[in-house]
């Protein structure tokens, strides 16, 4: 899913908000995985904070939504999870092969093990309807 | 720490003076990474006196288009400055406290 | 030769797919009450939709991404969410209106109460979205929608004084018996019907479904600049037929039957049958588009896999969203609210939501980082700015006018 017009990721400075946050994350075949809902930062040798992981899901997006809506999103996501201290879906930055118009990873969604709602919906709803495994005619 | 903790956070100087709000994170693409691509490295905070325009995500760089759109965006982006992240003392509860005066 | 045929097919599909229940109702209503004095609004709306459809098609072809995907990326999650919620509400309302429209058209054909058709129609809409390939879906209902050509035919058969007709279009004169506020209210409704927001989402998502690239921009432009105006001509013909047949008789449009009455008068029973076929095709096609658009907008905002170009189980959340929207729409129709009234509300609220939809597209289409050499040229920007101004005025005036005139009473 690359595009030659995307030369914004040069060695010159760029804004994380514009060029990484809220970008679509895709697998090597272009299948859609998630959005970059937030990003994990850590202090780096040589100054600054370096991006260590991409974060996705309601626990990542929730805090970025305004006011009550944000808090409810996080609360709901916490309820849904079995974990007492749930954390958002995390994709370590070394999975990223390309930062262009979309963020390309080196594995597919299933191999990442981060799909939650999609898997649940697929198992409990979609797969029960005949024809879900066939491409449209 | 997450990027969302920095974005939209208030920036205050050593003596508590409000500098503005973080509306962007200026990065270079030379951060250490164990993968094939270098990771973005946040080097500076973009701090704006006004919050509204940047919260809508309109950035000034390279914006072309009808003059009305450009004028609106320029107006919303007055008084933006860069603050080196080395000046950050601590980040707590939506506020970034600096350890020294930015120049 | 094959390429020419496929372009031709694309144009035909664009013409037949242009009209939906909003256009049917708004143009017939306006024609019956105001004659041809509001045709200029339809023309304006058609120019507008051509402009923005071209832009959003170009954006989708170059970036290979859908509208909401880019809106969130460019404007951030908060503004993107506001946009999503507002657009979703309007789209589901329109979805309800379209399903009601199909049921009404089937009632017209069979004299069986429209409510009984609603579950059947709902199931058919779901089944088509579930199984039929995107291109087939588009082409079948687009071509069947060409049945609405019976309206220009009826107009021709009514043998009007063409000079007078043209004069009343070009030099519009509000009927003395109607208030200015009602006139403007119907103008807003016509504008909202011509420039429905879901068109843009659907058109851009469809471009991604059909794997368009920058090479397809030329074809997209042919579809938009030839197909849409001709489709708009169908809208004008519907208004003109109503003006010639219903207005002198003082008949106001409250049912789909009255929309088709001029065709029955001019062309007879066969003509009415063809018109009904056109109604069914146009509304069913639009139901498919609005249904898919609910899925497109939510999935694109959150980054979920979407689209009919993958197996349903690979886009599970997308299909569930469409299903839930369908259930909501069916439930709304089954409340027995008058589908014609629901249609009126859907087009007026579409007018209110227009700035939210079109401003981001204008921004993205101008961003050289996304568009490269395909950014907006000066003409697109000049027209785009003018229309943005018009859209903002219309959106601001819509609700006050609705309240002032008690929704066009």
Q: Can you walk through the features of this model?
A:
The complex is a heterotrimer of chains A (137), B (103) and C (409). Chain A has a four-stranded mixed sheet with strand order 3-2-8-7, with no helix packed on it. The two termini of chain A are 25 Å apart. With 137 residues, chain A is an alpha+beta fold. Chain A is 25% helix and 25% strand. By secondary structure, chain B is α+β, with helices and mostly antiparallel strands. Chain B has three helices and six strands. Chain B has helices at 3-6, 52-55, 67-76; strands at 10-12, 18-31, 39-48, 80-84, 88-92, 95-98. Chain B is flat. The two termini of chain B are 25 Å apart. With 409 residues, chain C is an all-alpha fold. Classes of the chains: A alpha+beta (137), B alpha+beta (103), C mainly alpha (409). Strand 5 of chain A pairs antiparallel with strand 3 of chain B, so a sheet runs across the interface.
Please give the oligomerization state of what you see.
heterotrimer
Structural class of chain B: alpha+beta
Secondary structure tally: strands of chain C: 0
For the record, give the distance between the C-alpha atoms at the N and C termini of chain B, rounded to a whole number: 25 Å
Sheet/helix structural class of chain C: mainly alpha
What characterizes the major β-sheet of chain B?
A: 6 strands, mixed
* SS strand fraction of chain C: under 5%
Taken in chain order, the helices and strands of chain C follow as HHHHHHHHHHHHHHHHH
Helix content of chain B: 10-25%
Point out poorly predicted stretches of chain B: 52-62
Number of helices of chain C: 17
Main-sheet strand order of chain B equals 4-3-2-1-6-5
Note the main sheet of chain C.
none
The coarse silhouette of chain B is flat
What is the average of the pLDDT values of chain C? 92
Attribute tags:
heterotrimer; B: 103 residues; alpha+beta; 6-stranded mixed β-sheet; 6 strands; flat; C: 409 residues; mainly alpha; globular
Layout of strands and helices, then pairs:
The complex is a heterotrimer of chains A (137), B (103) and C (409).
Chain A: E1 14-15, H1 16-19, E2 24-26, E3 32-35, E4 38-43, E5 49-56, H2 58-61, H3 67-80, E6 89-92, E7 96-99, E8 103-105, H4 109-112, H5 117-124
Parallel strand pairs in A: 2-8
Antiparallel strand pairs in A: 2-3, 4-5, 5-6, 7-8
Chain B: H1 3-6, E1 10-12, E2 18-31, E3 39-48, H2 52-55, H3 67-76, E4 80-84, E5 88-92, E6 95-98
Parallel strand pairs in B: 1-6
Antiparallel strand pairs in B: 1-2, 2-3, 3-4, 5-6
Chain C: H1 2-16, H2 21-34, H3 39-63, H4 67-110, H5 114-131, H6 134-145, H7 150-157, H8 162-170, H9 180-194, H10 197-209, H11 217-249, H12 256-267, H13 269-302, H14 316-333, H15 339-365, H16 368-371, H17 378-404
């Amino acid at each position: 899913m690359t595009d030659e017009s995307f030369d914004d990721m040069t060695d010159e400075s760029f804004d994380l908000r514009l060029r990484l946050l809220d970008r679509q994350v895709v697998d090597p075949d272009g299948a859609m995985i998630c959005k970059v809902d937030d990003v994990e930062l850590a202090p780096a040798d040589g100054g600054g904070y370096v991006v260590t992981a991409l974060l996705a899901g309601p626990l990542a997006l929730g805090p970025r939504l305004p006011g009550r809506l944000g808090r409810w999103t996080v609360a709901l996501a916490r309820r849904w999870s079995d974990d007492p201290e749930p954390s958002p879906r995390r994709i370590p930055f070394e999975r990223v092969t390309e930062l262009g118009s979309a963020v390309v990873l080196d594995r597919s969604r299933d191999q990442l093990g981060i799909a939650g709602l999609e898997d649940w919906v697929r198992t409990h709803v979609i797969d029960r309807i005949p024809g879900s495994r066939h491409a449209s005619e | 720490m997450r990027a969302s903790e920095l974005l939209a956070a208030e920036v205050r100087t050593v003596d508590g003076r409000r500098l503005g709000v973080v509306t962007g994170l200026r990065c270079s693409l030379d951060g250490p990474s164990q993968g094939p691509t270098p990771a973005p490295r946040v080097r500076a905070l973009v701090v704006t006196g006004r919050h509204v325009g940047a919260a809508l995500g309109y950035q000034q760089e390279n914006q072309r288009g009808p003059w009305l759109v450009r004028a609106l965006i320029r107006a919303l982006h007055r008084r933006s400055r860069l603050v080196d992240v080395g000046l950050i003392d601590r980040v707590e509860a939506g506020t970034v406290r600096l350890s020294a005066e930015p120049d | 030769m094959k390429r020419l045929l496929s372009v031709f097919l694309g144009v035909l599909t664009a013409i037949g797919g242009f009209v939906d229940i909003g256009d049917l109702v708004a143009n017939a209503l306006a024609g019956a009450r105001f004659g041809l004095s509001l045709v200029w609004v339809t023309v304006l709306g058609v120019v507008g939709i051509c402009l923005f459809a071209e832009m959003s098609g170009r954006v989708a072809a170059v970036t290979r991404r859908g509208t909401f995907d880019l809106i969130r990326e460019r404007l951030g999650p908060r503004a993107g969410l506001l946009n999503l919620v507002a657009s979703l509400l309007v789209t589901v309302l329109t979805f309800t209106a379209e399903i009601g429209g199909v049921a009404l058209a089937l009632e017209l054909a069979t004299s069986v109460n429209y409510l009984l058709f609603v579950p059947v129609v709902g199931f058919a809409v779901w089944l088509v979205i579930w199984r039929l390939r995107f291109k087939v879906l588009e082409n079948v209902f687009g071509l069947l929608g060409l049945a609405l050509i019976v309206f220009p035919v009826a107009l021709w058969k009514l043998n009007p004084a063409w000079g007078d007709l043209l004069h009343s279009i070009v030099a519009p004169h509000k009927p003395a018996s109607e208030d200015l506020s009602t006139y403007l209210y119907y103008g807003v409704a016509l504008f909202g019907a011509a420039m429905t927001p879901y068109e843009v989402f659907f058109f851009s998502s469809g471009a991604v479904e059909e794997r368009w690239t920058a090479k397809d921009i030329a074809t997209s432009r042919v579809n938009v600049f030839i197909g849409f105006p001709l489709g708009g001509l169908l809208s004008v013909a519907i208004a003109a037929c109503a003006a010639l047949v219903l207005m002198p008789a003082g008949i106001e449009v409250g049912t789909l039957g009255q929309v088709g009455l001029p065709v029955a008068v001019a062309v007879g029973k066969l003509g009415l049958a063809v018109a009904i076929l056109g109604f069914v095709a146009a509304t069913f096609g639009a139901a498919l588009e609005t249904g898919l658009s609910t899925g497109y907008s939510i999935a694109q905002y959150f980054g979920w896999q979407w689209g009919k170009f993958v197996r349903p189980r690979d886009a599970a959340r997308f299909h569930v969203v469409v299903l839930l929207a369908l259930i909501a729409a069916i439930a709304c129709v089954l409340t027995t609210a008058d589908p014609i009234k629901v249609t009126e509300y859907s087009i007026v609220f579409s007018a209110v939501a227009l700035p939210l939809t079109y401003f981001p597209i204008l921004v993205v289409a101008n961003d050289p980082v996304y568009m490269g050499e395909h950014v907006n040229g000066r003409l697109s920007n000049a027209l785009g700015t003018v229309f943005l101004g018009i859209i903002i005025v219309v959106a601001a005036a819509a609700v006050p006018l609705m309240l002032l005139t008690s929704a066009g009473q």
